[in-house]
Amino acid sequence: MKQKRKTINSMLILSISFTTLLIAVRMIISKELTYIFFEWNMFLAIIPVWFSRKLLQQNDFKIKAYLLLFLWLLFYPNAPYIVTDLFHYSERPPIPYWFDLLIVTSAVWNGLILGLISLIEVEQFLEIHLSPIKVKVLIILSFFLCGYGIYIGRFLRYNSWDIVTNPIHLCIDTVSRIVHPFHHPRTWAFTVLFAAMMALFYYTIKSLIILFQRIQLTLITQQK
Description:
Layout: H1 2-30, H2 37-56, H3 63-75, H4 97-129, H5 132-154, H6 162-165, H7 167-179, H8 185-223
Helix pairs in contact: 1-4, 2-3, 2-4, 5-8
């Protein structure tokens, strides 16, 4: 398990470094900071992975685990949030269109995979301490909370830390959308559809993991 996690970490570092290198090259050529915000967003996307790793180190489901789980959920939307940075993609001469496409898509991939890995690790922890049905409910709930978190981040311009620095306005906006859902169709359309997309990504990745494990087990059995 440690070896597999080490391999995953190496690939994540390589992937993030690739995007960082592209951005650096773009800055040197264009002398502009056009996509520098991806560096900050990728940093924020790493935070939920840090919390999920800390959560996995807990031997019981007590106060510290609850706190780590809460902090993970608070920062988790920051990872797939990078998908919405596709809004910033446009042709900006003299940089080739395809070069900027590489920057944006690689950054989006980093955000998605960091978010999915952290969710897989959280599920691994929950499976040890909770019943299967409770784990499934919590994972599905996380998709919707993630979708809503991304919405308020992109369109209402809230940050994860606003739950501490600006809780009143955040609560008012949230309660308003819950009490009057038909007054805010874009909120719930975005939340539900983004949650569905994240669920598709997540269960596809999990299915691939199971498939690779079965192939590996088959190969080991054949060798014997």
